[in-house]
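Need residues for this backbone.
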């Protein structure tokens, strides 16, 4: 893959949601994801084989943003998104899948489905998830690979979220010849991650994610049915953050030529 522009790829290139007053505290509700170049205002083009994605400058007065606009699309886009717990992956995934029609594949969701089904894999996975540790590769790798190879993912392209989380998981994808076009890393300062996690709630009826302080439920009826993920406690998120930090550099080294950083 090449990243073209009047200048060569700049490491200062960042992918960020448009800024809002709450952007440093809670996932941005704006449905557009923008590429912003700190070093120049020059539009960039990203090519992956015959597929071309153009980054256009947005008509915005307050920021030198670039909108990702697909053009000359000959094959489906493949994206991996990575970030610490509560870095905003869920929100960004919703926005990206809506915009590009990709199939969203979240390793954590696949695992939670196994846990809910009380399968053998689910029972074993839960032991690790409760400790904030990585579930063994024997369970995760095949599960993700099979989902990536399903017809909808192949036809529409995919957005893989929460995988790979170790160099061996990245190596397994490479061995299967599965390589993304772009690797997005969400970068959020650690002090706000814990607060986001502890206040995060799910509406089991609509699937909508709330935050008790920054995005509270609209009424008492919704508030009364909100649930909390079993690993969204302060104690457990600290363990999950430690696991994330132990592994993120190894994964980044595999994809460093296709990485864009997003600051949320
Ligand atoms: P978060 O990113 O907030 O930790 P996820 O829903 O992505 O939440 O993951 C929840 C848990 O599922 C993780 O703490 C880990 O135990 C397990 N898990 C998720 N993805 C993987 C993976 N790729 N490999 C191993 N375990 C995973």
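Answer:
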């Amino acid at each position: 893959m090449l990243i073209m522009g009047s200048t060569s790829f700049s490491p200062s290139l960042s992918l960020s949601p448009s800024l809002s007053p709450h952007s440093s505290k809670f996932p941005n509700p704006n449905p557009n994801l923008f590429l912003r170049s700190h070093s120049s205002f020059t539009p960039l083009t990203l090519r992956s084989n015959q597929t071309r994605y153009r980054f256009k400058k947005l008509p915005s007065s307050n920021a030198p943003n670039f909108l990702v606009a697909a053009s000359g699309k000959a094959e489906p886009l493949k994206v991996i998104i990575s970030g610490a717990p509560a870095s905003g992956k869920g929100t960004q995934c919703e926005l990206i899948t809506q915009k590009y029609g990709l199939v969203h594949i979240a390793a954590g969701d696949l695992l939670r489905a196994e846990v809910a089904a009380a399968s053998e894999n689910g029972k074993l996975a839960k032991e690790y998830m409760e400790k904030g540790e990585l579930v063994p590769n024997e369970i995760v790798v095949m599960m993700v690979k099979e989902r990536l190879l399903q017809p909808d993912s192949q036809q529409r392209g995919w957005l893989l979220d929460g995988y790979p989380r170790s160099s061996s998981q990245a190596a397994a994808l490479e061995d299967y010849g599965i390589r993304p076009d772009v690797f997005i890393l969400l970068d959020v300062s650690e002090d706000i991650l814990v607060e986001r996690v502890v206040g995060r709630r799910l509406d089991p009826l609509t699937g909508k994610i709330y935050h008790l302080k920054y995005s509270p439920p609209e009424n008492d009826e919704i508030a009364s049915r909100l649930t909390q993920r079993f690993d969204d406690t302060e104690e457990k998120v600290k363990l999950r953050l430690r696991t994330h930090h132990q592994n993120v550099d190894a994964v980044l080294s595999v994809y460093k030529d296709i990485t864009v950083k997003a600051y949320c």
